[in-house]
Amino acid sequence: xxxxxxxxxxxxxxxxxxxxxxxxxxxxxxxxxPAYLQRCGYRILPVxxxxxxxxxxxxxxxxxxxxxxxxxxxxFRAPAHxxxxxxxxxxxxxxxxxxxxxxxxxxxxxxxxxxxxxxxVVQDRCxxxxxxxxxxxxxxxxxxxxxxxxxVHYDFASSLCYVAHRVMQRLAPxxxxxxxxxxxxxxxxxxxxxxxxxxxxxxxxxxxAARVAAELGVDLRMPxxxxxxxPALCGALLSERAERGASFREAAWRAVYEHGRExxxxxxxxxxxxxxxxxxxxxxxEAAQGELAARTNAASGALTSGxxxxxxxxxxxxxxxxxxTMRQLFRRFAETTRGRLAS
Length: 343
Description:
Blueprint: H1 4-13, E1 16-20, H2 29-39, E2 43-47, E3 53-54, E4 57-58, E5 72-75, H3 82-90, E6 98-101, H4 108-116, E7 120-122, H5 127-134, E8 148-154, H6 159-178, E9 180-186, H7 189-193, H8 203-215, H9 230-241, H10 245-257, H11 266-275, H12 282-299, E10 309-312, E11 315-318, H13 323-342
Parallel strand pairs: 1-2, 1-5, 5-6, 6-7, 8-9
Antiparallel strand pairs: 3-4, 8-10, 10-11
């Protein structure tokens, strides 16, 4: 399937898309593409055995676990894995109308098997790019309005920052539709509020964090004491320079609040980064301490309520609220800011 008329007809007929290899990080194409498609009105069914929930949908471990029929299967997988997924596709009943292999994914033998089974195939093309090119009028408002950047000050030592991270992941498609980009900026809270590193977390603080997490539907495993987050925060800064900030943050949050790793030493942070394919030297972590201190000092005016703090224009919004409350805050911020820019 190559001609524009065929592709346009396919995209107009499709309603439900299974995305194999979907990711959580907003910087990954395997997240941005399905988020765009969801915003355009398609039902997205995520497939990835390593994840639990993405884009507000439960994630299935494989195609055989889908809750119902799909019109299109979108593959974000290396070519070597395509034949296995084709086996799963051919076992579905009913089978999808088409299979779309993302840009850089091509397997001619697997494509031939699909075509022989009456399934249309697109290879080595970006579904988001082709949709925007062929059906641009169906794209959401974020494609027509200037993007709004919202700084978010955070610290890996704060359990509420972890909760905020998870809540904002669930709201990511709506923020994308509003044209809002969250800019996560690490700060060292202990530098501002005193010697808490290594101290036990007070029962009242633990109880409050557990209550907030439960109310917002976030599983939380709190450390026994306040961690020294400086090495991890410096790792986040260095990962930003390598354009891997989102991947590092996700891995660090998981390490601390899901797997009980402290990341309180340079070696621990370097090991985590290496797992992601990010090379960080101990000397770089030490040098990044200066930038971390500078960011913390620069953000001090906004950190009126600690972390997390969402800086909505001139208004610092501290803490994390329910999804509905955060949704309303961001919507009002976008409307007010764009109205001011247009006047």
